[in-house]
Amino acid sequence: MARLAIGKEFLAEYAKLDRNTRSAVDTAIAGFARQTHAGPFLETPRDSRDSRIRTIGIDGVWRGVVLAPDSGDTYCLLTVLPHEKVNDFAASHRFGAARASRALEVRDEEELRLILAHPFAAWRAFLHPSQHEIAYRVSYSGSAQVTGGPGTGKTVTVLHRAAILAERAGQPRLPRPVLLTTFNGNLAESLHAQLDLLIPDAAVRDRIEVLNVDRLAYRVVKQARGTPVLADERELRVRWAQAAANAGLDFTPAFLKNEWEQVILAQDLRAEPAYLTCPRTDRGRPLTRAQRSQVWQAAERVTTELAAAGQSTHFQLANEATQLLRQPGAPRYRHILVDEAQDLHPAQWRLLRAAVDPGPDDLFIAADPHQRIYGNRASLTGLRISVRGRSRRLSLNYRTTQEILAWALPLLGTDPVTGLDGEADSLLGYRSPMHGPRPQAWQAASRTEEFGFLTERVGSWLSAGLEPHAIGVTARSAALVREAREALETAGIATASLSGRSHVPAVRAGTMHAMKGLEFQAVAVIGVEQGLVPEPGAVAPETEDPLAYAQDLQRERCVLFVACTRARDHLHVSGTGEPSPFLPPGAVEPVPPPAALHSR
User: Fold this and answer.
1) What is the DSSP-derived secondary structure letter of residue 437?
2) How far apart are CA 600 and CA 464, in angstroms?
């Protein structure tokens, strides 16, 4: 059956058409979708520069320009023009394969109606009607949550919700009554930039503060007692190693540190008796009462050393800031919106709970547990945050093609995933209406060969017209990212860090963790091989804690999944030696010769 996809660029044009013409376009597209064969509907213009160009009648004045597929039955509507301009357009335009991939496939008339009812000029500002309903609801009776896979519009829903809450705030009792927050500074900067584009009214924009949660804790503590000094992670590992050695404990330093962060600090336990009887739900190795006492003594030693050095960790600062905000008269926000909420630690959640008074529209939360890339786990109910009856799930991806999604989803494995509300979370029904080329995964014989293939691939994207900053290159380790950048630079391809300014005309490169929250037209994920993915140092020994081992493996799967789903249209995956065990059987091919590469 013939199907008609809608070119992304056409959506902006559609919005500028008058109502009658838009209605005629709707009718023409819907009629096309009901046909078994496209032939009777389409005409071939004379003197066409591209043999695939066809036209379709809209009304007595307008005709649509359609790109026929090289194979299959999915056509792409490119634009709508007056009759007299169609032939000139056909004679002056030629399209590459990439143009046809930048399209939304319409499955039925209802989906067509929903898409065309809300055309958009920029993908990151687009709200599907289901997202619009969530963002522009008059009020929620308490905290609310929106979940969904990558590209389903959680972030843009949060941005629009922040805008509407700020607009409704009127003359606020606080200079900035709305806080938009997330788990790291890079994401906060990205949210800040998107918010500036979304809200043209400076008075409304000034009512929103964009600040990652660690900076919020830092500021609260700084105002109370002066500038905090953050503990260096390398020094912290040494302290735990010394504490374990001095006490003769049969625990690794990593186990002790995780026990401190994920049990003691997570529950804000301040005395040994509380730790001796507390639940350890997410810890797989059981501890006797005597062992718990030993762990507590080691933790006391480390915290005492940190205090003597005048140092604190981020989670310690979050707990300290929470106590300060709970004091009478402490300044609080009217509304707090949280993006990428799945990666927040319980101490950070307590801080946010203390920073806003409970009530209507107090917390608006966007999360996807399938994108959890850090070891933090939290239950909202246990933190006095209830979203029961106010949780919505998005399942339609408007960023990544269906081909990339279908390739990436198996990377997550089959283990069940639990959301912030304590319920099992599923990506059942998660799909994309967009289509494009299938991802390609290659296994090279050496790193030199892999870098050569990477250079060829990035060069081909640039030659096809992709802007440099629309291309992302990522690896699990910072060291491999540096090597890849050197290889690209040697080949004359400029690169820039992911943390740099996005408008710099250079290919962006960074670790898989740094890719979180970003998107690119094309992404190359390198070093996807045994020994690197999963990262051995990020996985607890199975003999020490079977549950932590399973959780760490799942988190590493999520890291790879996040990296691959940053791609909008093109995904290239490569490695050397043995493929990563996360890659499905048959997903990897040997590196082809250069001639074959250019033909793909």
Assistant:
1) P
2) 12
Q: Reduce the DSSP state of residue 458 to 3 states and report it.
A: helix
Q: Which of 61-65, 109-113, 361-365, 432-436 has the lowest mean pLDDT?
A: 109-113
Helix (H) or strand (E) holding 216: helix 213-225
* CA dihedral sign of residues 463, 465, 467, 471: negative
Tokens, residue 236: 């912290």
- The phi and psi torsions of 488 (rounded to 5 degrees) equal -65, -45
Beta bridge partners of 66: 54, 77
Residues near 34 by beta carbon (within 8 Å), at least 6 away in sequence: none
Q: Which amino acid is at 215?
A: R
Question: Which residues are within 8 A (CB) of 554 and not within 5 positions of it... i.e. 6 or more apart?
Answer: 412, 413, 415, 417
Among positive and negative, which fits the CA dihedral 179, 182, 184, 185?
negative
Helix (H, G, I), strand (E, B), or coil: what is residue 207? coil
Q: Which of 112, 100, 86, 84 is nearest to 27 (CA)?
A: 112
Pairing of strands 567-576, 589-590: unpaired
Report d(CA 479, CA 481) in Å as an integer: 5
Distance between CA atoms of residues 366 and 474, nearest Å = 25
What tens digit of pLDDT does each residue of 413-434 get? 988 888 887 777 888 888 887 7
Rg of the chain in Å (alpha carbons) = 26
Predicted pLDDT at 123: 43
**CA–CA dist 242, 240 (Å, integer):** 5
Contacts of 233 (CB under 8 A, 6+ apart): none
Handedness of CA 588, 589, 592, 598 (dihedral sign): negative
User: What is the spatial distance between Cα 496 and Cα 502, in angstroms, rounded to a whole number?
Assistant: 9
Cis omega (within 30 of 0) for bond into 279: no
C-alpha torsion angle, residues 231, 236, 238, 240 (rounded to 10): 140
